[in-house]
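RECORD TYPE: inverse folding
INPUT: structure tokens
STRUCTURE:
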């Protein structure tokens, strides 16, 4: 007798109602403090039309102004006998034919789309996360294997590193790395920030790698040795591939945490996403709108990472 499958739509409807209730709660809370939403101020912090002023290079006279669509071509006859031809946006034209101009006078502007501070902050967060994540993965893999090494010195040094990093706040480590190590070695703030994040991530990755390797049955290593592989070959070709499948979820979680931890490098004047959001708030006075956009941008980074990790995990599970 087959069991009747229960419909799932009531549960999905309940989920939607809860989300609507949360949104209504946020709206009601802001209404209590008389907050005025100004979403129209937000787009300029993603992209805006920058204006480049076009100026006269020398004293002279406007010889001609030729308008072509939304552009205007201004020809100047300078006192040195040379001509200067400048193209500007038609609606920004500030001179007319026959006008005298001085050196540095503005003739008009050229407009072009430029990335706003939130997009630049997003880009900074992305490259810092990638650089620190790649370095942290290498550091963590090496340190995790050192934790399992038969050499007492390697085990002790790697243990000291892991416990020291995991036992102190990341913010304190960034300060120490920038103001002490960075000053002594004359490092840039970007390098210091990436290095601090990489060392912090590496300590956690090391423990993930160690746990993953130790979860593999000892018989796997013995079987590899019986086939003629030495210890390093057995670790590379047999143990680590199996361990990687098991540690993929915690590794993905660690890298997602790394993306959020990049917000702390703003304390050493790196303008990443969170710092860009704070700067946008000071000029727009749209506190809630900017912070919601910043949170959404972090989600734009982290949700694809989670989906990629889930798909890779399922694919590796099918290969068992």
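DESIGNED SEQUENCE:
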């Amino acid at each position: 007798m087959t069991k009747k499958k229960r419909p799932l739509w009531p549960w999905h409807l309940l989920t939607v109602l809860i989300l609507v209730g949360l949104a209504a709660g946020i709206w009601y809370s802001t209404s209590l403090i008389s907050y005025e939403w100004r979403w129209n101020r937000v787009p300029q912090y993603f992209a805006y039309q920058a204006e480049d002023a076009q100026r006269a290079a020398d004293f002279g006279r406007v010889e001609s102004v030729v308008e072509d669509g939304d552009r205007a071509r201004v020809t100047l006859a300078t006192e040195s006998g040379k001509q200067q031809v400048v193209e500007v946006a038609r609606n920004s034209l500030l001179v007319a034919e026959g006008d005298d101009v001085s050196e540095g006078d503005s003739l008009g502007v050229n407009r072009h789309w430029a990335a706003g501070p939130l997009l630049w902050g997003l880009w900074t967060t992305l490259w810092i996360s990638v650089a620190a994540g790649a370095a942290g993965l290498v550091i963590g893999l090496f340190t995790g294997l050192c934790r399992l090494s038969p050499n007492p010195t390697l085990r002790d040094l790697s243990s000291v590193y892991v416990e020291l990093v995991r036992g102190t706040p990341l913010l304190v480590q960034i300060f120490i790395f920038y103001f002490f190590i960075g000053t002594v070695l004359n490092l840039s703030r970007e390098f210091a920030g990436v290095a601090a994040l990489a060392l912090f991530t590496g300590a956690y990755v090391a423990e993930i790698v160690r746990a993953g390797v130790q979860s593999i049955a000892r018989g796997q290593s013995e079987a590899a040795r019986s086939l003629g592989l030495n210890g390093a070959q057995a670790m590379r070709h047999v143990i680590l591939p199996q361990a990687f499948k098991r540690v993929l979820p915690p590794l993905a979680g660690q890298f997602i945490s790394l993306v959020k931890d990049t917000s702390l490098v703003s304390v050493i004047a790196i303008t990443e996403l969170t710092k860009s959001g704070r700067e946008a708030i000071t000029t727009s006075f749209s506190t809630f709108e900017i912070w919601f956009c910043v949170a959404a941008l972090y989600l734009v980074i982290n949700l694809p990472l989670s989906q990629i990790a889930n798909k890779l995990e399922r694919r590796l599970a099918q290969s068992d």
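NOTES: The longest strand covers residues 106-115.
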